[in-house]
Amino acid sequence: MKQNSLHTGIRFYATSVTTMVVFCLMLTATLVGCLDIPDAPDSNRRIEYANVYVVQKGISDSTTLKIHPSDPATLKVDVYPRQYKKELSFEWFRTGIFADSSDLKSVGTGDEFVIDEETAPIFIPNTLQITDQQGNSMTVKFNVIVNTPPKMDSVTTPANKDTLYGTLSTSFPFTWGATDPDLRYEDSLSYVLIIDSVSYDIGSLTQIMQSGFNEGAHTFQVLVSDSHGDSDTLPVCHFYVVDTLGGKK
């Protein structure tokens, strides 16, 4: 009888202990679920993305990175996630300063790089290295285009308000021109000629002969663009054709 009571007591004690253990585990799980425990710091965190853009005259450009040499410009960088930007260091480099060279030359530090009239083209950066506090780094390569837009010459043939004499079969000369200091740096110009509202893509030509003009008022205009997409337009020129045969063939 005593032995049975002992066994019953042991079973009761074991059951009680098990119940308490289960209760403690459930309580712990509940507390852990309720507490907002932050993750451990990630010492290998890297910047997900970085983008270099240029600002000139208050206009931002993140695609062509094209600037005019006579106006100050600033290279800037956006990083993502943005909240880590203050923890990063930035260094600007220029590669290929010397012919057949891929060496990096440091030209500045900080999250901005100012380009002014005194900045030689060979010292405009084309590489940005971003480093975080753990020593992780990211390299961003880009290319800044320094371009002067072309400018149409004001002298043309025919000149504005000229009078031309001839017939429908008379070929009249049309001439024009443009200047662009970047032509010495492998830039190129192309023209569009507009006569009486009809456009002609004429490539690099600066003169043509054109016939088929009826007597009366006519117009022509020229548009020029360079290989970087900058352009200029000649104001519309008005000219008058007098039929010397009085409409007779």
Question: Based on the structure, what is the oligomeric state of the protein chains?
Answer: single chain
Inertia-based shape: rod-shaped
- Output the CATH class name of the largest domain: Mainly Beta
Largest sheet: 6 strands, mixed
CATH topology-level name of the largest domain: Immunoglobulin-like
What is the rounded distance between the termini? 144 Å
Q: Using the 3D structure, state the CATH architecture of the largest domain.
A: Sandwich
Uncertain runs are 1-14, 27-41
Number of strands: 20
Helix content: 10-25%
Average pLDDT, rounded to a whole number, is 84
Radius of gyration: 38 Å
Q: H/E series, N to C? A: HEEEEEEEEEEEEEEEEEEEE
- Tally of structural domains: 2
Number of helices: 1
The percentage of residues in β strands lies in 35-45%
Task: Find the CATH superfamily of the largest domain.
Answer: Immunoglobulins
Output the structural class: mainly beta
Task: Write a structural description.
The protein is mainly beta. It has two domains: 49-146, Immunoglobulins (Immunoglobulin-like), CATH 2.60.40; 151-243, Immunoglobulin-like (Sandwich), CATH 2.60.40.10. Helix content is 13%, strand content 41%. It has one helix and 20 strands. It has one helix at 2-34, and strands spanning 49-56, 59-61, 66-67, 73-80, 89-95, 104-109, 112-115, 127-131, 137-141, 145-146, 151-152, 162-166, 172-175, 178-179, 189-195, 198-203, 207-210, 216-226, 231-233, 237-243. Strands 12, 15, 16, 18, 19 and 20 form a six-stranded mixed beta sheet that branches. A four-stranded antiparallel beta sheet has the order 2-1-4-7, with no helix packed on it. Strand 5 and strand 6 form a beta hairpin.
